[in-house]
From TrEMBL, chains A, B, C, D:
Enzyme Commission code: 2.4.2.14
Keyword Iron: yes
Residues reported in the UniProt entry to bind Mg(2+): S296, D358, D359
Annotated cofactor note: Binds 1 Mg(2+) ion per subunit.
Gene: purF
Pathway: Purine metabolism; IMP biosynthesis via de novo pathway; N(1)-(5-phospho-D-ribosyl)glycinamide from 5-phospho-alpha-D-ribose 1-diphosphate: step 1/2
Record protein name field: Amidophosphoribosyltransferase
Origin species: Candidatus Kirkpatrickella diaphorinae
Amino acid sequence: MQAEPSNRPYEECGVVGIWGAPGAAGLAALGLHALQHRGQEAAGIVSHDESRFYQRKGLGLVGDVFGDPRDIAQLPGDCAIGHNRYATTGATLLRNVQPLFADFEFGGLAVAHNGNLTNAQTLRQALVKRGCIFQSTTDTEVFVHLIAISLYSTVKERLIDAAKQVKGAYSVVCLDQDTLIGLRDPLGVRPLVLGKLAEGGWMLASETCALEIVGAEFVRDVEPGELVVIDKSGVTSCRPFKNTASRFCVFEYIYFSRPDSQVEGRSVYQARKQIGVELAKESPIPADVIVPVPDSGVPSAMGYAAESKLPFEMGIIRNHYVGRTFIEPTDQIRHLGVRMKHSANHSVLAGKRVVLVDDSIVRGTTSRKIVDMVRAAGATEVHMRISSPPTKHPCFYGIDTPEESKLLAATHSVEEMAKVIGVDSLAFISFDGLYRALNHVNRSEASHRYCDACFTSDYPVELVDREGRLIA
Amino acid sequence: MQAEPSNRPYEECGVVGIWGAPGAAGLAALGLHALQHRGQEAAGIVSHDESRFYQRKGLGLVGDVFGDPRDIAQLPGDCAIGHNRYATTGATLLRNVQPLFADFEFGGLAVAHNGNLTNAQTLRQALVKRGCIFQSTTDTEVFVHLIAISLYSTVKERLIDAAKQVKGAYSVVCLDQDTLIGLRDPLGVRPLVLGKLAEGGWMLASETCALEIVGAEFVRDVEPGELVVIDKSGVTSCRPFKNTASRFCVFEYIYFSRPDSQVEGRSVYQARKQIGVELAKESPIPADVIVPVPDSGVPSAMGYAAESKLPFEMGIIRNHYVGRTFIEPTDQIRHLGVRMKHSANHSVLAGKRVVLVDDSIVRGTTSRKIVDMVRAAGATEVHMRISSPPTKHPCFYGIDTPEESKLLAATHSVEEMAKVIGVDSLAFISFDGLYRALNHVNRSEASHRYCDACFTSDYPVELVDREGRLIA
Amino acid sequence: MQAEPSNRPYEECGVVGIWGAPGAAGLAALGLHALQHRGQEAAGIVSHDESRFYQRKGLGLVGDVFGDPRDIAQLPGDCAIGHNRYATTGATLLRNVQPLFADFEFGGLAVAHNGNLTNAQTLRQALVKRGCIFQSTTDTEVFVHLIAISLYSTVKERLIDAAKQVKGAYSVVCLDQDTLIGLRDPLGVRPLVLGKLAEGGWMLASETCALEIVGAEFVRDVEPGELVVIDKSGVTSCRPFKNTASRFCVFEYIYFSRPDSQVEGRSVYQARKQIGVELAKESPIPADVIVPVPDSGVPSAMGYAAESKLPFEMGIIRNHYVGRTFIEPTDQIRHLGVRMKHSANHSVLAGKRVVLVDDSIVRGTTSRKIVDMVRAAGATEVHMRISSPPTKHPCFYGIDTPEESKLLAATHSVEEMAKVIGVDSLAFISFDGLYRALNHVNRSEASHRYCDACFTSDYPVELVDREGRLIA
Amino acid sequence: MQAEPSNRPYEECGVVGIWGAPGAAGLAALGLHALQHRGQEAAGIVSHDESRFYQRKGLGLVGDVFGDPRDIAQLPGDCAIGHNRYATTGATLLRNVQPLFADFEFGGLAVAHNGNLTNAQTLRQALVKRGCIFQSTTDTEVFVHLIAISLYSTVKERLIDAAKQVKGAYSVVCLDQDTLIGLRDPLGVRPLVLGKLAEGGWMLASETCALEIVGAEFVRDVEPGELVVIDKSGVTSCRPFKNTASRFCVFEYIYFSRPDSQVEGRSVYQARKQIGVELAKESPIPADVIVPVPDSGVPSAMGYAAESKLPFEMGIIRNHYVGRTFIEPTDQIRHLGVRMKHSANHSVLAGKRVVLVDDSIVRGTTSRKIVDMVRAAGATEVHMRISSPPTKHPCFYGIDTPEESKLLAATHSVEEMAKVIGVDSLAFISFDGLYRALNHVNRSEASHRYCDACFTSDYPVELVDREGRLIA
């Protein structure tokens, strides 16, 4: 993930659920820690013991909010759900931190959600008209109110009732006094996996790396449109939606998911390496050294280097101590072109023809700074290879992208982009190359089509609120 | 740098000094940010404008203490010194955060110091007897009192007077109303470099990466035993000590310095790669994949892989969001063998013979956890290669190592260590291999001898206080 | 008000509303400061300018929450309402701090409320059943949901609709984008006054002392059951309830209201003095000195002293620096019988026959401590006179009293109480004496009957939820 | 004490010492709480158990700093000293909070001090010249350094050595590992009393009210110039200075000390009442009501009322919730003449000729506001009577008064002051009247002369640093 905030897409959330394991909140916190890359602004956990619910939420990293063992001790019980959030700043933020919790006629329910509803505003207006009072600006609360007013008698039925009314991309976990439920949207845009804890009990999580950290065994992906119910009788499943071909988010492969996660049964790390291989086949260039923009560019650069038989070097060093806050540079410092997150490793750049490999270009400002830095370190040529197609369209399914006019690729040709960024050459992986790397013949004949709307504008879920979409 | 606190040596400090540049405190903060790897517990800056001194200190990362532009705005002036600190915890900590500042007869003086004095306790007792009142438990305050009671009339002379009384390894920067002074101990154990700011003014810093971030040009290392005085007339230099052969800390190459820094005119990154090459020559092993323990093991592993013609893979993924605090694992969680900082990348480990390359083994507990994790991910064989000789002796020159009895290599043979750590084979770089990688024939004939006392117990500076050394 | 928490009744709230005055939030904060005696646990203000609403809430005194002028600067606009709260402790508190704010179909509405609903739980259950989601545990939120689901089209009509469904004692202020509304319950148990700001604009407040501090002119009490609407066309009034005889809380005279406030057109200070006069007539005793328990006992003691021609002395000194927190005494300190809030003025107690005058006895523990302290200071006799009848029943109308079994007067005769408290004699004002002091012939023939249920159990509003009343 | 900061003199400190009592720190905290009126800005305690010293200091009230029982639990031991401080604001404050602690050759020493040294700057310059490094800007640190460099071998001898070098008004308590020492300056300007704890052990405190709160028995005043040493052998005493007539601060009677304290064997409350009696004799006026400016004016007003046979009424109500911070009034609010601490009780002022009784006039701004408020409440005449002579000169002995040019009485006649303040008449107690009230024939023939320099400019201790006195 690269440097400056809002120059990159940010996944808005990671979710976990634990059922039937002593110390569930501690396990949930570890799972959230493993999913920290999916949201760094806030974290929350709701647990349940035999008698009641407990919750703790806070701004900051999981380790900030749950860093003290006493924080976990105040969340007793064998069941818990948790949530990491990327969110806007401001005084009203805390009320948006998930999981949301509400008392219903039949008891309490906690809900956490990764994704975005495309008809959230429309539904919200209808709910407010009916007399519902919203406390947050999150899509999740739409779910909660739909559940509250549903006339069905069980949480499961009410959740299905709610899910049939919403449109969008989402993975939801819910906890009531008896049951942990996981639900993936009909197209399966956002990921959700099921695991089994070593000493009994079950786990749901956005990615397998969250299972890994607590030693849980990966069982399977929750399937697109599947609702999984975990209670004393074990795991049962139902499919409330009519069958549709799935459209998993291809950006999970390119950038979002952790390289050690498995998505759709495939290693993210290996997928990225293979994209690098395809990229090298499609866009070779004579050079002395292949340098990744760390950390997300590393595997692609390794694949590119291997395929092109050129040396792979860590020519850019990442400063790991960049937190959420730092000196907002004064004009003087800004003028210096300070790079807080990256520095150039002169010893492998000076006098070299350098190929930089990165995962995407959003606004282009970060890329420009990095290229300048590499040239200042003495590179004689700088070429850039991008392991995704040009990002031309915003995401409406849970990723915080700038509006279309701010996307460099939306308004510039590749040649123009090369000039803006200051490189000698620029190339993106092709659609077909990308699909080949993921083991398909090409995009059009892919056995499994992805959601790649940010490249293609082929939006698989209707954009009901588009004109006024909620950004919360 | 690897995971658990106190399993690894920690450099205690980074220092910077700025002279003659508007916004000096902002530049100092950036420099400290680049030196964050040398100390993460606290940070402080003292600045001076035409009329007075200003200071700000706090616990935490540089970005925590100086994250708000207003923090910097309250430190006006063209001159500043700053300090990063690794330190013990506790309520009394803040008074130990440097720079220390004192009012003297002739005006104010701020002092920041990286290293350790080996006669600090002895001097302190004598000073207290004389009526000096200590406010901190730092070695730096010994310097300050020695300066205060010196009968010489200038800061420079008083600093020399003080330096002649102390023994140890140190790089010191001082700021009075007119002058920025840098001083390196006679053997040059700790690093200190001089740079020139692009728009005028001078900079001192522990490493070149701090020059880099503010666009300062590297001028030269401050030499062992050299005192550099920067004032309106420019940079002047003197050598108050009699000539001795220098003994630079070899661990700065192996682990401490940032890979993109240059020390003694040599790239740290390239030195580490070359150590990996030598290690592969000395201790080859049939294997399928070479895997670094990130991040410090990466260049050595690349060198090892290149020399051994085996594939280099990122088989261990580092979680970048591990801060200073996190869930102190409950027994339940500890039982899971949770690894907060690292996770296994199954896709490159399963079914493979793996060579792990790391920089050192201190207590062995972290290594054991990593090996277990790699085996759990399906590695069929695990071999470990270490890019330093066995760490058998504590450091008394500014690095926080455990006492000798806790150093695994002090009490175990290499074969025994392999068993403790759970590897199929274990090898360390030899003394001569290490010196060869640094361009010497071998250790005994090195044109330039290092301080390698942690491996050899050849302590180049007398350990006056040894029995009761201060750990502050 | 006497010392230890929960030994005394606490008024739960004070409210203010400002309409049509620049800097409304600042005026509201001053008004809340003047009403601080009505609630010290939390404070909140919602303001509105031409375009939107702003809010700030926090735990602590008004000066803690709004102590920085920037806090007020972030609450722009000409209209504001504010609230002081007494509340239970705990992490979930903040969501209970008023004013509550909600977005409705027709816009935003802020609501603040002083009092207690006696059918809040019953209504809440019905609302939850309907699908309403509660965020707080306050009665106020019942109002808010009733307004949200009302089918009427204006805030005023919806508020009336809601008010007709609730039972209890309350004074409510509401602010929407155009209007400030004040509403007093049909019996007028809780106070609410209307004032006119010097430079234009209107003010509502629980007591006249809040008008005083901002220089507003007292216009009149809002009448029992009256709804006052303030907007651009001025102040209009309506009476949505059928006429009933009012039942103002007599404890407002005895203890709650500030002595410089006017309630029902009568000075609280003078009323208390007159109660002291009646008490002296009813229960004279030979003594040397009349000593108030400060501060609430001062006027009654002055009246008692004047009537009995005995000297009035400040024999008990109050420590004004007792905040919300202090050393929870260790056993050792508790054993000392430490009195944090009061100390004895030996010079007027030693060797004297002392009459202590206080406003009420709740549990008796504080009285006992004070009596012990006065005896320890050398008093030869200690008599106690109480300016209210015995408190035998809990309040369900907005005052936090202990349950009946904890009220000393509920389980002890006056003679037994005297023994428990350790006094030589004890007397309470009679019902008729109390009414006489308030200018009535006696209780049964009072032209104006008070709510005196805490003394008489004559509860004027039906206790619908009684078995499980909400304590929030 | 009246309202706005810096309009009034503020005593800078209160001190306590406990020796030989389990839970000493808890007792010290209670003592400091009772002395809170002497300093509200910061508080600190140092305790000692058999083996070491513990300290805790913080900004705010005693209850803020020591409000949590765990704070006290971290200060174990049978001995403790504590300090309340009034101090200037700012980031560097904490280092000035007392007790100061230092390690000496012979062990640790904690020192707390109430008062002011008149040669502190002179001594400080000499000490800095010698090489002493100051950490604070307090006079107390001068004591500490003088003790540190003394060549005597015991703390007692070193303290005497230091005391002989300082000039000023002070009461000092010191704690080393064996001994609690109390010392009063030769003229006894500041108070210090000795008490005996009920269950054994000894106590020193600025006022008797601190003994009272922990149930300690008053033994006697520490005498002017007396040094009291408390250790295992009991209490011993010595008089290191040559005999001088004492000069106790008369303002302790008038304003500073708590009314329930005894100073010089006389009740402060009764002294104030008697001043009121004398004032009524000297300056009678036809009026309807005598009204104190609370709280310090209450006893004098009672005395005045009794002597003049006019009714005493609480015509001004104090708001007890004014803390250290509040809305710094905006211009708009300032224009309203807002009185945060006081409000008028209309019912006793309207239509009345009012005599206000207050303790002093410093700048006059507060008096003016109060007079305006009383007139606005309808008073037909307002007269002011002051229970001290005109304050014409600053205090250099530990009370924070404005410089002479800001003292209204220094630049205005009484008639002019009356105009400034807006009263119909103004009178101050005469010197002789004041001395008469304290049982002397008159000032010139007083058996015991007070320090009354703020009225008379008869400064009894040489003002060595006067030109540049330290304000810390």
